[in-house]
Amino acid sequence: MSLLVESIQYLFDNFETFLQLLQEHVFLVVVAEVAAVLVALPVGILATRNDAVKRYALRVGNVFHTIPPLAVIALVFPFVGIGMKSGFVALWAYGLLPILINTITGIEEVDESTVEAARGVGMTENQILKSVQLPLAVPVIFAGIRTSTIINVGNGYLAFFIGAGGLGDWVVTGIALFNNPQILAGAIPGALLAIGLDLALGRVENRLRTGDEPGQRSTTAAA
Amino acid sequence: MTSTIIDFENVTKEYPDGTVAIEDISFSVEEGTTTVFVGPSGCGKTTTMKLVNRLEELTSGKIYYDGQEIRSLDKIDLRRNIGYVIQEIGLFDHMTVAENVGMVPTLLEWDRARIDDRVDELLDLMDLPAETYRDQHPMELSGGQRQRVGVARALAADPDVMLMDEPFGALDPITREKLQDEFLEIQAQIDKTILFVTHDIDEALKMGDKIAIYRNGQIVQYDTPKEILTNPANDFVREFIGSDRLIKELKFMTAGDVMDETADVTGKTLSELGAAGVEFARNGQGYLTVERSETTHVALMKIYEGHVEGVLVTEGEEVVGTVTEADLKRNLSEGR
Predict the structure, then answer these.
(1) A143 or B336: which carries more pLDDT confidence?
(2) Torsion angles phi and psi, residue B171, rounded to 5
(3) Among A115, A122, A219, whose Cβ lies nearest the Cβ of B134?
(4) Predicted pLDDT at B2
(5) CA B250 to CA B244: how far, in whole Å?
(6) Interchain CB contact of B116 with A (< 8 Å)
(7) How many structural domains compose chain B?
(8) Handedness of CA B99, B103, B109, B114 (dihedral sign)
(9) Strands B82-86 and B34-38: what pairing?
(10) Is the ipTM of this complex over 0.90?
(11) Nearest to B182 by CA among B232, B236, B125
(12) Cα separations (Å) of B202 from A75, A201, B70, B199?
């Protein structure tokens, strides 16, 4: 118990450094994640309409994902150099697969009869995607984004090795110096960050599910 | 007098793997009628339907929609002019009932108020009061209600033609019969041309003005229900109708069709018969009668239940003829 108290003590004694590290960590994860969504989502959608895209996209995503995160980082920095940039690239690459897989699954698992009905009433393929498949796939796609985010909060610790900063600073230094309070002061906020981001994304998902559909086709709820 | 709206001319559909779904089919559907495609599963009836809204493309032959060859029409426009109902319903679960029903009008870019009015009108027609149901989600509804929404969605843009692929097939027997009856009433009001797929011959006989019986991708008989019952084209049709064919036939004849108008009770009223002490069709409860428009099935049931040799056929107060068991036998097609 005293270890926990010591950790908290350590954190407050070095509060400014802590804020700095936390900020770097959040920044790293969020930017990498947004970039991963921006790539994986369109590629995932494309993959549901083109088998070749699907094959290659999954293959590339799998390669990034099966290599240990540390190795991904090690592989990236010769090309991008030391620092934040390679941290982004490594986390981005690692975050792609869960989003890619869930986008593909989410869209493909929309009930075949629903899609056929949509086609039968005269929706174009783009309208089916936009108004039927994507909205119905939102929960699955978001599950992928959440998984990817949580994984990357963890991977963010390794970014320290290529000078990208983040909470890994305290953890890695703490391990080297056998400074347990420092390790925990770096690790616990990371765990809380993962939980926090997951909850926040859950919020966004709920918004999307309940908020966006009546937007275009408002019912007469105003009455 | 009536014109045809859908014409199939030697239509064949062959899949890339060589399976022939339908082979050299020709028929015409008259405007405002219900045509039922019936047959065992895998016989090509659903494929026939999907060729009409081009969810499947034909391999050879021609299909005309209102005189125009369908391949010359825009697929998307064509589908928006044809209502489509399927067994699995396929409602959009993330949208409200109103949004589901208003889908095609929305695609056609009707204005908001017109869509709302149309949705309310249809929900009321389908016995789903709009104020209760329009903002519900499909998941909150029962199977029967969901299919009503499915039918309402298909009717939304007031299409001339409705395609219905086993629309009531997944419902329990009681709900199914209720929806069939309601749909017949609605059809009498809206007067659409309907193509209806089922594997249930009883449903086909009940719903259809014309029935096409399928076997292995070909139509073995295309006729009115009555003609199919009385003159089955071959053993397959006879077997498909079932061993109770004659009873089904009774349901397609009215007392007026078979009655004997020469009996001397004709032209009198029931009270006159009573006064004259006529014993025909009378038992302890009085005279047994059927209306001219009632089916011979009803007449037969009355004859058996009342232990009489025949019943009187009435029109208002007046007796217009008699139906005996012998009259029924004579009018049924031979057992063959």
Answers:
(1) A143
(2) -95, 160
(3) A219
(4) 64
(5) 10
(6) yes
(7) 2
(8) negative
(9) unpaired
(10) no
(11) B125
(12) 70, 54, 32, 9
Pair (B22, B158) in one structural domain: yes
Cβ atoms B312, B319 nearer than 8 A? yes
CATH of the domain at B301: 3.90.1280.20
Residues B222 and B322 in one domain: no
Can you give the residue range of the structural domain that contains B160?
4-250
Nearest to B48 by CA among B268, B160, B263, B196: B196
Strand partners for B86: B165
Do B154 and A121 make contact, defined as CB atoms within 8 angstroms?
A: yes
User: Is B11 inside any structural domain?
Assistant: yes
Residues 6 or more apart whose Cβ sits within 8 Å of residue B2: B30, B31, B32, B33
B15/A contact by beta carbon, under 8 A: no
Q: What is the pLDDT along chain A (223 residues), one digit of tens a residue?
A: 688 899 999 999 999 999 999 999 999 999 999 999 999 999 999 999 999 999 998 888 888 778 887 888 888 878 888 888 888 888 998 899 999 999 999 999 999 999 999 999 999 999 999 999 999 999 999 999 999 999 999 999 988 888 888 999 999 999 999 999 999 999 999 999 999 999 999 998 888 876 544 434 333 333 3
List % helix, strand, coil for chain B (3-state, nearest 5).
40, 25, 35
- Ranges assigned E (strand) in B90-155: none
For residue range B24-67, list pLDDT tens digits in order: 999 999 999 999 999 998 899 999 999 999 999 999 999 999 99
- Among B250, B278, B304, identify where a domain stops: B250
* Chain B partners within 8 Å of A111 (Cβ): 88, 90
In the predicted model, what is the mean pLDDT of residues B158-167? 93
| Distance between CA atoms of residues B166 and B65, nearest Å | 22
What pLDDT score does B271 carry?
85
User: Amino acid identity of A128?
Assistant: I
Q: Looking at the partner chain, which of A111, A114, A119 has a beta carbon nearest the beta carbon of B55? A: A119
| pLDDT of the residue at B277 | 82
Considering only the beta carbons, identify the residue of A113, A122, A213 that sits closest to B86. A113
CB B167 within 8 A of CB B86: yes
Please say whether the beta carbons of B71 and B120 come within 8 A.
no
| B164, β-bridge pairs | B85, B196
Instruction: Check residue B4 and give left, alpha or beta (phi > 0: left; psi -120 to 50: alpha).
Output: beta
Question: Would you say B201 and B38 are in contact if contact means Cβ atoms under 8 Å apart?
Answer: yes
Q: Are the C-beta atoms of residues A22 and A153 closer than 8 Å to each other?
A: no
A52 contacts: CB under 8 Å, gap ≥ 6: none
Q: In terms of DSSP bridges, do strands B161-165 and B210-215 run parallel, antiparallel, or are they unpaired?
A: unpaired
Which helix or strand (DSSP H or E) is residue B107 part of?
helix B103-107
**B336 within a domain of the structure (yes/no):** no
pLDDT at B129: 94
Taking the C-alpha atoms of residue B232 and residue B245, their distance in angstroms, rounded to an integer, is 10
Residue with tokens 């999954």: A58
Same domain, B72 and B135: yes
- Report residue A65 as tokens: 């994902």
Q: Say if residues B335 and B281 touch (Cβ distance below 8 Å).
A: no
Q: Which residues in chain A are contacts of B150 at CB distance < 8 A?
A: 117
CATH number of A2-210: 1.10.3720.10
